[in-house]
Amino acid sequence: MDARQLEYFLAIVDNEGFGRAAQKLHIAQPSLSQAIAALERELGVPLFHRIGRGVVLSDAGAELVEPARQVLRDLRTARSTMDSLKGLRRGRVELVTMPSPGIEPLGTLTTQFLRHHPGVTVSAAAAFTPDEVVEQVRQGVGELGLVGAPGPLRPPGLDVLPLEDQPFVLVGRPGPSFPDGDPVPRAALSGTRLIASPAGSRMRQVVDDIVAAGTDVEIAAEVAHRTSILPLVMHGVGLAVLPAAWAPLARRAGARAVRLDPPAHLHIALLSRAAPLTPAARAFLATAREYTPVDLDG
Description:
There is one protein chain. This protein is 39% helix and 25% strand. The protein has 298 residues and is of the alpha/beta class.
């Protein structure tokens, strides 16, 4: 077994098939198939079940995914550690982030980090729930994870660095349909139309709490992609309850953004793997430890 075989194996997993993996790796598909067949012979177990023209992971293949990612990451760590003896001049920070933390504090953290390490690339993969972030960090998809949750997280096997608590804000087009007050009493939302995320998110939980309190609101749209919410607001579809990370963008777009009364918050934290981190990830984590929350109300 060598690193090239593991890289090929993970490319098939991540691209969901031999054809797309071969394109991604810029090799011929027969060469990829031969390399995986050789790896399966060495291991003595099938890693994939061939079903028609597609493949699915076998039980053995599923067990290999996380160790394979760790082996390749350890090799990158070894190379990066040698580079770090000359100073952190290149490398890659691999993190996973939920949408709202992906605006702030990711924007500020990345700006501060690249100011000191301009040759390093920051790569941010997407996740939509805290559980997804935790699982992707555990599996090695990213070394770090930016997560937003109702309260502090304590996932076993991961280190947690609390960063800030973002208040939720009410966002909408200025006009008579926007409730008076700053902050806006939740009862003042009676009779309004809201754009909400699907059930299970912290954003949706805040909306559900408003409804449960007896406020007469209508869910005008249910949107999974957070990036669609602000455009829908500006088209006049309805109001939205969003974490304060969205407030500066909303105001620049011409919307109003005010706090709710009583308030609700999103707890933002940075998760990191318990395994040794690459020098780039360690440097990003050091930047995060010095992070001071920005003023999102201005």
